[in-house]
């Protein structure tokens, strides 16, 4: 068999890994969208690097857009096989893909208004809302811990990755010429001390491993300090400076963790009496859906739920649904907290909130997850004194901060713990994906010291044979 890396290769987004068997069948692991790559983003998302109609089957590790976001395009261009995932992943992907399609359509309309006036080429969305809905009929739901047939000579099993609700590590057994090999794809590995989810599960010995490495060279703060750090930012920005605290947050995962932390502060009688706005219809829908999967929560949050039926709701929380309501937040003079998507601040309503508040030194922007270096969040995190937003340059006077302990990605200790169930001498090859190259190089050195002798960092479209 051969494997080719068509995304998340020496970068974090766009996860797509294509396995080609000797009999010609092709199995795709994830079909994610590139995000936050600046001017290159659109071009990267328009070319897969393979023929969609030749892909026989697909396995989806989880619903995040950088892993699922190009599935409607894959189907639109001829894919006719099955897409295997967990029940929760299918339900979440339905919400996220339709939202992504709406963004595609709106961006194309906005772009084409200018194109008509300037005589430049029109832009088509990558896919439409109808495409997003159509692709869902290809999804097949599977449970954790059960081997299921995928193709002739190929079976797969899911284990809990502990990253988001329904997330999986994917284990594929491939039999060719009477010899069976196991390939494990980590998806995104979660935290072992996550405040909401269970820890990643152990898994059978693998011959080949494709492993994410987003935080392969860093350690997060203790997750239990996240609540205190969040409180500190609220007190400094909203109480002391009487400003607005803008929190970009991914609709799936990060938003729920922030809401849970704020709820915990209220249970402890420490939550400042302010207005807290969740300005993201998608985040609201995702939060409501996640409540249906409380069996995925760890023991701590399940204990909390014995006395608090809704761990994501607290006094002072307001849901903002309409665009007009969102715009009105910009005219508020009172201190408040605004939680809004997207997490990289590259799109969505939060980008407007940052644009309207970034030049006021009383305000603060608190980043709570990974940001691609070229994204707005990445540029702010890098300390830029001036940033362009919607074609307008803004001086950065608002305080910029981050809480790394809220990341749903494991740090190098979490990643090492995930690998601890493996005998390194039996792993023929380990590929590092879903990470920046300057992070992957030192992480590779760590893995070699742990006994993984053949560790490779593939480039995009790199293909290698495995025996």
Automatic annotation (TrEMBL):
All copies of domain Metallo-beta-lactamase, residue ranges: 13-233
Signal peptide, first to last residue: none
Record bears the keyword Hydrolase: yes
Swiss-Prot/TrEMBL keywords: Hydrolase
Upper classification of the organism: Bacteria, Pseudomonadati, Bacteroidota, Chitinophagia, Chitinophagales
UniProt keyword Hydrolase present: yes
UniProt xrefs under SMART domains: Beta-Casp, Lactamase_B
Organism: Flavisolibacter ginsengisoli DSM 18119
Domain Beta-Casp residue range list: 255-380
Entry's Gene Ontology molecular function annotations: hydrolase activity; RNA endonuclease activity
Stored InterPro entries: Beta_Casp, MBL, Metallo-B-lactamas, RibonucZ/Hydroxyglut_hydro, RMMBL
Matching SUPFAM superfamilies: Metallo-hydrolase/oxidoreductase
Protein name, UniProt field: Metallo-beta-lactamase family protein
Entry-linked Pfam families: Beta-Casp, Lactamase_B, RMMBL
């Amino acid at each position: 068999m051969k494997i080719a890396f068509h995304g998340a290769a020496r970068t974090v987004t766009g996860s797509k890994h294509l396995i080609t068997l000797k009999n010609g069948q092709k199995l795709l692991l994830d079909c994610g969208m590139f995000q936050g790559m600046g001017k290159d983003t659109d071009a990267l998302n328009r070319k897969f690097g393979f023929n969609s109609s030749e892909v026989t089957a697909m396995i989806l590790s989880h619903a995040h857009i950088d892993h699922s976001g190009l599935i409607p395009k894959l189907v639109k261009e001829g894919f006719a096989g099955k897409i295997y995932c967990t029940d929760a992943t299918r339900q979440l992907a339905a919400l996220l893909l339709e939202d992504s399609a709406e963004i595609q359509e709106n961006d194309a309309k906005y772009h084409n208004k200018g194109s008509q006036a300037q005589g430049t080429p029109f832009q088509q969305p990558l896919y439409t809302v109808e495409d997003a809905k159509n692709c869902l009929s290809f999804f097949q739901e599977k449970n954790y811990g059960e081997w299921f047939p995928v193709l002739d000579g190929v079976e797969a099993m899911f284990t809990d990755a502990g990253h988001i609700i329904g997330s999986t590590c994917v284990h594929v057994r491939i039999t060719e010429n009477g010899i069976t090999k196991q390939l494990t794809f980590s998806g995104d590995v979660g935290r072992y001390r996550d405040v909401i989810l269970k820890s990643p599960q152990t898994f059978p010995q693998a011959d080949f491993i494709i492993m994410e490495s987003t935080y392969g060279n860093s350690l997060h703060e203790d997750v239990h300090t996240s609540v205190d750090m969040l409180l500190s930012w609220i007190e400094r920005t909203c109480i002391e400076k009487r400003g607005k605290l803008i929190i970009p947050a991914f609709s799936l995962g990060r938003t729920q963790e922030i809401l849970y932390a704020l709820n915990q502060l209220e249970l402890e009688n420490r939550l400042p009496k302010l207005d807290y706005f969740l300005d993201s219809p998608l985040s609201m829908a995702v939060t409501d859906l996640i409540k249906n999967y409380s069996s995925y929560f760890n023991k701590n949050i399940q204990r909390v739920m014995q006395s608090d039926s809704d761990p994501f709701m607290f006094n002072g929380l307001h849901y903002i649904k309409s665009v007009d309501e969102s715009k009105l937040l910009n005219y508020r003079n009172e201190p408040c907290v605004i939680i809004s998507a997207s997490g990289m601040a590259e799109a969505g309503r939060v980008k407007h909130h940052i644009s309207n508040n970034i030049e006021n030194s009383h305000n603060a922007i608190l980043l709570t997850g990974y940001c691609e270096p070229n994204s707005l969040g990445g540029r702010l995190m890098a300390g830029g004194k001036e940033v362009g937003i919607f074609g307008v340059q803004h001086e950065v006077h608002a305080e910029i901060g981050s809480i790394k302990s809220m990341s749903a990605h494991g740090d190098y200790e979490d990643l090492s713990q995930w690998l601890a169930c493996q005998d390194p001498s039996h792993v023929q090859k380990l590929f590092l994906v879903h990470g920046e190259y300057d992070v992957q190089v030192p992480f590779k050195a760590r893995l070699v010291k742990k006994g993984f002798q053949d560790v490779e960092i593939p480039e995009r479209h790199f293909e290698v044979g495995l025996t």
